[in-house]
Amino acid sequence: MADQPTLDDVRGWPATVAVSRAAQALGCSKSHLHERIKRGDSPVRTIPFGSRHVVITADLLRVLSGESQQAA
Q: How far apart are CA 25 and CA 61, in angstroms?
């Protein structure tokens, strides 16, 4: 796995990112984040995009910044 991106790096990302990229920022595996999305208890909000999901970068920033509001 490549180096974990910084909060400043994530701020420069597009509005949505692939689950694999979000997992890298969160410091977990892509499969772990996919499983949490499937179970409905992901720490970040996602948008269904065809047969896959994309992560909302603003919500990823919220989690990485330590804000407590739970994803809806």
A: 10
Three-state SS string over 27-70 comes to CCCHHHHHHHHHHCCCCCCEEEECCEEEEEHHHHHHHHCCCCCC
**∠ CA 71-46-32 to the nearest 5 degrees?**
85
Q: Select from 66, 71, 63, 72 the least CA-distant residue to 23.
A: 63
Whole-structure pTM value: 0.86
Q: What is the DSSP letter of 15?
A: S
- Tokens 């969160």: give the residue: 26
What is the band of 69 on the pLDDT scale with cuts at 50, 70, 90? low
